[in-house]
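Quarterly update, task 2.4: adenosine-5'-diphosphate-bound model.
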Amino acid sequence: MERVDGRRFDELRPIKIEAGVLKRADGSCYIEWGKNKIYAAVYGPKKVLPRHLEKDDRAILRCRYNMAPFSVEERKRPGPDRRAVEIGKVMQGALEPAILMHYYPKSMIEISVEVVQANAGTRCAGITAVSVALADAGIPMRDLVPSCAAGKVDGQVILDLAKEEDNSGEADMPVAIIPRLNQITLLQMDGKLTEQEVEQAITLAMQGCQQVYQLQIDALRRKYAGAEYE
Ligand code: ADP
C-alpha cells in the first residue's frame, strides 16, 4: 500500500531533535517531526507554588501544552482548551514514572510544550522532546521516554500517522515507553480496532519508539560532544 507521503507502513516521518536550544530554560529541546515543529522547556526543580501542592517526599511535575494560533491551518483560538488540558495530563503520566521524583521533595519541575506547527502526533513529539529537555536540565531519570503512534488507515495498521492519514483514518493509538524498564507509560486510542489490530498497533508503535529513542540519544550525544546552538 502506498501512503500519502510515500512511506512504508512501518516508517516514521523524518525526525530532527536538538537539545539545549533555549538559553533561559534549565533544559530544552526543539523537535521537527514531519511537519510538526515543537519546543519543550524545563524549569526546576524549584519551589512549589502554590505551596499547598507541595509533597513532603517527592517533587511534583507540572506539564503545560500549548498550541500557537498559527500552528494549524485555521487560526486556533489562543489559550488553553480541553484538549490542551488533556494532553498536559497524559504527558505528565507518561513522563513521571521515568523521573526520580523522590530526589526532590517539596519541589516542582515545570514543563512547557509549545507547538508552533502541528501536523498530527504532537503529543508524541512533545513527550519525546520533553524527555530530552529533562536530560538536558540534568534531572535524574530511569531512562528517556520515546513516544510514537500507530493507527489504522484504509484497513492497514501503520506507523506514525500524518495529518491527512489521521483525518481519513479509522484509528490512532499514541504510545510512550520507558525502554530500559520495558514499561508502557502512555496508551490512548481514538477510533476502532479489533483485538488483533490492537496487538499489531502496540507492537508497531513500540518498534517506532525504539527508533525515536536512538534519535533522542544521538541528540544528547551531539549536545554534550560540544556542538553549539544559538
Ligand atoms: P495529536 O497532535 O497528539 O495527534 P490530536 O489527535 O488531538 O493530537 O490532534 C491531531 C492533529 O489535529 C493535531 O496535531 C493538529 O494538527 C490538529 N488539530 C488539533 N487541534 C486543532 C485545532 N484546534 N484546530 C485545528 N487543528 C487542530
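Highlight for this quarter: Residues 98 and 143 are 6 Å apart (CA to CA).
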